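Case 384 in the screening queue. Each case pairs one protein sequence with one candidate compound; here the compound is magnesium ion. For every case the pipeline is the same: read the inputs, emit a complex structure as tokens, and attach any notable structural observations.

Predict complex for case 384.
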Amino acid sequence: MTKKVTVLGSTGSIGTQSLDVIRAQEYSVFGLAAHSNVELLLRQVQEFHPHCIAVVDDAAADRAARELHGMPGAPVLLRGKEGLEELAAMDGSDIVLNAVVGIAGLAATLSAIKSGRDVALANKESLVTGGSLVTDAVRENNVKLLPVDSEHSAIFQCLQDEYSAKSLQKILLTASGGPFFGRTRQELQNVTKDDALRHPNWSMGSKITIDSATLMNKGLELIEAVWLFGLPAEQVQVVVQRQSIIHSMVQFSDNSILAQLGVPDMRIPIQYALTWPERVPGPAPELDFTKLHELTFDTADEATFRCLAACKKAIGKGGLAPCAANGANEEAVRLFLEGRIPFLKIGELVEGVVDSEAFGGPYTLDDVYACDAAARAYVLAHVS
Ligand code: NAD
Ligand code: MG
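Case 384 output:
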């Protein structure tokens, strides 16, 4: 069946790989959204002929308007944050794939769900910052929230048998360990942005690549898993699997374990989210076991990689603590990429913000944004 898909964040790493899948499946594109890369967005418009596009950055939206002027069959142009939310909710798409980076994706996730649309979610920050808002909205609107993150797709794939799923006991969330696996704090003191941007197995956007180097990504994913699969954090165990071949595992009440394996290629989980519950041939290559010499397992070093410990503490505290951890991390990663703070400072700031308050209790969307702003302010106040 041909589907109509809206891709938010279409110019990014997940966005462009989503369009690879859409091209291969001959799905149609209803909407595309990006922050400011108008050049790539317009090339995507020429190929996929969406009904509507959204450009978040103001100056970029002006550029897009000029380029679209007089173009035959030009898409409707929406602008700003409101434009992104409006596109997510528009009638005409069957599913919204949210591949925006950061808390900037939250409002669009909620907007798509509240308009009754299924969501394929790459934007893990939606669940980390507004987990109860997102999962409540999914229940109230009776829509599907399909994971795109490879670990969560793996877990989801292992839980398709409803009889087994009922006896889920434990999630074994795999982690590559990132470029700095095995290093001591001493050895991490002077690592640079370029060192941190060199991921061994995956090619991704810069923010998530830094998150993989600090293990913040695994902390965010642990929180994401708690919201998606309803297990307490104590039943989610991080397992370092250096080759990124096992994408995660689940353990049932009889201690039987299922794993999902494949080459590290995001087009597999992206495609599964779009074709679920069916499986169809796709663009990702098969795993060649004649070239796979070993699968290794290690534990994560939380004493060195403080972001993971801080995220565990945050989900334990509940309420807006994960949102605060995320906000501090987004700000700290920005400062690290600008060369303004050293690598280890990211973990210190995330941990510091989680320790700074109680955070518990229910919250509204306004509370989420206020907490995010406060966490960013905390970071700015704690860097010289
Ligand atoms: P990226 O930086 O490559 O792309 C981000 C996209 O979001 C771009 O299209 C950009 O235009 C858009 N964007 C940025 N700021 C925005 C804003 N304020 N408003 C609207 N759009 C904005 O990032 P990515 O690596 O593709 O990651 C996207 C999301 O997917 C993240 O949440 C990440 O954690 C998650 N994810 C990525 C991977 C991966 O392999 N890259 C894997 C799993 C999960
Ligand atoms: Mg992942």
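Case 384 observations:
- The chain has a mean pLDDT of 97.
- The first helix runs from residue 13 to 25.
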